[in-house]
């Protein structure tokens, strides 16, 4: 799995003019699922994300996790994180999971996140989405479970 984490003061996703998800302080997560990913990978990634110390403490140091600040999470499916641009000018997405499997693991990740995170909102899998955010910091971190 691949994830781009953006620490935000607020974020929202809109599909066809309808807000499908909106959060305040927390993380916007762009989530890509690879063809070899499974629930174990999703569980490890979620644990890493919720415990990653990227929020500032009272001294201004990044020393607090999403769990510690009781932050919110907006999860947006993003198969394009698996773009391979090494050849030609059009990206290949051969390493991305099939839409059926990608959606299944995306939904699994969201379900598990809702067990531990105070508020979890989402985009709409496979839809064209408008994502708005205020990146706090800015802080943007990528995680690739293959590395």
The CA-CA distance between the termini, in Å, is: 10 Å
Structure annotation, total helices: 3
Strand content: 35-45%
What is the residue-mean pLDDT, rounded to a whole number? Answer: 96
Low-confidence stretches: none
Shape: globular
| Secondary structure: helix percent | 10-25%
Word description of this protein:
- The chain is α/β, with parallel strands linked by helices and 147 residues long.
- It has 3 helices and 8 strands; from the N terminus they run βββαββαβαββ.
- Strands 1, 2, 3, 6, 7 and 8 form a 6-stranded mixed β-sheet that branches. A two-stranded antiparallel ribbon has the order 4-5.
- The longest helix has 18 residues, at 99-116.
- The protein starts with a strand and ends with a strand.
- The mean pLDDT is 96.
List the helices and strands and how they pair.
Layout: E1 2-15, E2 18-23, E3 26-32, H1 39-51, E4 55-56, E5 62-64, H2 66-69, E6 72-77, H3 99-116, E7 119-122, E8 130-144
Features:
147 residues, six-stranded mixed beta sheet, globular, alpha/beta, two-stranded antiparallel ribbon, single chain
Concise structural overview:
The protein has 147 residues and is α/β, with parallel strands linked by helices. It is built from three helices and eight strands; from the N terminus they run E-E-E-H-E-E-H-E-H-E-E.
């Amino acid at each position: 799995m691949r994830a781009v984490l953006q620490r935000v003061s607020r974020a929202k996703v809109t599909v066809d003019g309808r807000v499908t998800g909106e959060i305040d302080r927390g993380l916007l997560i762009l989530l890509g699922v690879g063809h070899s990913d499974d629930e174990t990978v999703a569980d490890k990634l979620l644990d890493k994300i919720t415990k990653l110390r990227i929020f500032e403490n009272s001294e201004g140091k990044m020393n607090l996790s999403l769990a510690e600040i009781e932050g919110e999470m907006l999860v947006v499916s993003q198969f394009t994180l698996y773009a391979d641009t090494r050849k030609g000018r059009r990206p290949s997405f051969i390493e991305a999971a099939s839409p059926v499997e990608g959606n299944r693991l995306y939904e699994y990740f969201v379900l598990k996140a809702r067990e531990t995170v105070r508020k979890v909102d989402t985009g709409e899998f496979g839809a064209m989405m408008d994502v708005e955010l205020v990146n706090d910091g800015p802080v943007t971190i990528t995680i690739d479970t293959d590395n």
